[in-house]
Amino acid sequence: MDIKSLNKISDYIWEIPPEGDMRVPGRIFASEGLVEELDDNVVKQIKNVACLPGIQEASIAMPDAHWGYGFPIGGVGAFDPKEDGIISMGGIGFDISCGVRTMRTGMTRKDIQPHLEKLADRLFAVVPAGLGSEGKIRLNQQQIDEVLLKGAQWAVSKGYGIKDDLMYIEEGGVMDGADPSHVSSTAKERQFREVGTLGSGNHYLEIQYVAEIYDEQIAGVLGLYKDDVVVSVHCGSRALGHQIGTDYLKTLAEASRKYNIAIHERELVCAPIDSPEGRRYFSAVCAGINCALANRQVISHLVREAFSDVIPKARISILYDVSHNTCKVEEHLVGKKMKRLFIHRKGATRAFGPGRKEIPEEYRSVGQPVLIGGTMGTCSYILAGTESGMTQAFGSACHGAGRALSRTQAKKKWRGDVLLRDLAAKGIIVRAHSYSGAAEEAPGAYKDVTAVVDATHKAGLAKKVAMVRPMACIKG
């Protein structure tokens, strides 16, 4: 894009001045290089979001921003229901509550390495993955409603994990406000056999080791040390979340017309937060969040079983679980006034700074863990939320590397079988259900995650704590 059209606030903060129907400026957190790489369509989407009723402060884009549906992926928007604020499907996405969970193993890289091949095979066997994958859990209508109401708490009550796990999951493992009656039968039926499954696309389960520590004090609070092995899971609400998005596109399109809300892109259809349509959609989103939290909890149980089979002395404990496709009610300071806002994070991670009551008590002094997934051939990061991130971006940070090439472009450029052999030569074991799916997720199809995380750190959105590198990766 033409960087001259932006106002430079600092080396890592840029603004798009309001024009036309924009109610607030656009705000981009990125290095100059990342800004120059932005597609013009991303800038257009930032501007479109800035036109929505009730938006506060700015239409925000993270360093990993790229083109999405309605909102850019890496987009954040805060809306005040008292100022005709809206809720939009485009600000949440189809994969409701897609997120990352990172677990400690109590073991080091040296401990794991002799068992790595066997462990990868066992995880590949016990954690269902791939397009349309189904797990061993079979649910009916009544049981899926329980999942949608109780989230990870449901999973723990059924023996999938332990009560202490819930302390380290966003919202304590269950999102208030869910109403399963506002989720279609079609959406529920698609999930009857998908709880506890990884899915496909950019979802993964990865064994990683701590390669670098940037802040020893915070890392110590999080229980992370050099060469520790962790396991990270990236997945969401599967088919149910996608169906909720599909179902409510029509509902919100009708609501946009009914309430005379000007829409600049189809997926930005929305409804006033306090309208019947807005309340129904929000309650369905909360149900989708609970589905995702239950899904990651069951997968964590399967990870424990796999480790127990291969390395009985491993002790799997939850570091943290945080989502990046959500709408949540949060209190934030706007100007000098504390407001109750509906924060849309589309491909952006909640990153609360120190002191927030929503953070587990033992982490509260250092800020919320922020889990940033990279690629299966590079690295991922663990950060901590900051006070400046609270004031600049409603306590939000990037969520990953961000795509640089489309899936179609990636498949034209890489062959899955060759890619997996190249990664194996680098000591990274990959077990994939599809060579085509692996090619779509080639490391080269993504932006440089280190550049994205450095920009996040230098902009003050979150603080770098540790970098982790892949040892083995399970893909759909």
Structure write-up:
The chain is of the alpha+beta class and 476 residues long. It has one domain (3-80, 94-404, 446-475): tRNA-splicing ligase RtcB (Alpha-Beta Complex). It is built from 14 helices and 19 strands. The protein has helices at 32-37, 40-49, 109-112, 116-126, 141-157, 185-191, 216-222, 238-258, 276-310, 387-393, 407-413, 416-425, 435-440, 449-458; strands at 7-10, 13-16, 26-29, 59-66, 73-79, 86-88, 99-108, 204-213, 228-235, 270-272, 317-323, 325-334, 337-346, 349-350, 369-372, 380-385, 396-397, 429-432, 462-475. The strands form four sheets. Strands 7, 8, 9, 11, 15, 16, 18 and 19 form an eight-stranded mixed β-sheet that branches. A hairpin with a 2-residue loop joins β1 (7-10) and β2. α4 packs across α9 (276-310). The model has no long low-confidence stretch (mean pLDDT 95).
